[in-house]
Design a protein that fits this description.
The N and C termini lie far apart (95 Å). The chain has a 3-stranded antiparallel sheet with strand order 1-5-4. It has a two-stranded antiparallel sheet with strand order 2-3. Strand 2 and strand 3 form a beta hairpin. By secondary structure, it is α+β, with helices and mostly antiparallel strands. The radius of gyration is 27 Å and the shape is globular. The protein is built from 5 helices and 5 strands. The longest helix has 33 residues.
């Protein structure tokens, strides 16, 4: 029995599971939205929100310039930075190849964005099942991220496509009527 044993095992040993969650957390912070399985996203939410909470508990100290901080505030900020950096890798790489300092982004950007919020910094959006193994797939993203759009059916071109066939149909009907009237004129 697994009484009082919280957290998912994922069929991995401790070091592999910890490495997986560290990398997922760094990718979530770097890209602000990632696609993963439902179980991994639910476990990732626990980890990522704890790291962001460490930064938001500092308040304005987290994103104020170092020169404006007192010695005690500098020490508090350094401690929080070290706690965050002890879990996630220092740098992440975006899709375009730019390097992102993950710890700095948590301290400066995310702590400022979620300053007055008591928790719940992420949302999970269900996508459906994966084709290969039928695993439930989800997007996990920060709550202030832009809404997910469907990759196959973008909204803008769909509206334009519905408008064009009506005008195209009327244009083809006009050309057919002129063509048929031209044929009858040539036959007479």
């Amino acid at each position: 029995m697994r009484h009082k044993k919280a957290g998912r095992q994922f069929g991995r040993d401790t070091s592999s599971r910890r490495a997986m969650l560290r990398n997922l957390t760094a990718n979530l912070i770097t890209h602000e939205r990632i696609e993963t399985t439902d179980a991994k996203a639910k476990e990732l939410r626990r980890v990522a929100e704890r790291l962001i909470t460490k930064a938001t508990r500092l308040g304005k100290v987290a994103y104020t310039a170092q020169s404006e901080l007192s010695a005690a505030d500098k020490a508090r900020r350094l401690h929080a930075e070290r706690l965050v950096s002890s879990y996630v890798p220092r740098f992440g790489v975006k899709a375009d190849g730019t390097k992102v300092d993950v710890v700095e982004k948590v301290m400066l950007d995310l702590s400022k964005r979620f300053e007055g919020r008591p928790g719940g910094y992420t949302r999970i959006i269900k996508l459906g099942n994966r084709r290969g193994d039928n695993a439930p797939m989800v997007y996990i993203e920060f709550i202030d991220a832009a809404q997910v759009t469907d990759k196959q059916a973008p909204e803008e071109p769909a509206a334009a496509v519905t408008a064009e066939p009506t005008s195209a149909a009327s244009a083809s009907a006009e050309s057919a009527s002129t063509a048929s009237s031209g044929e009858t004129a040539s036959n007479e």
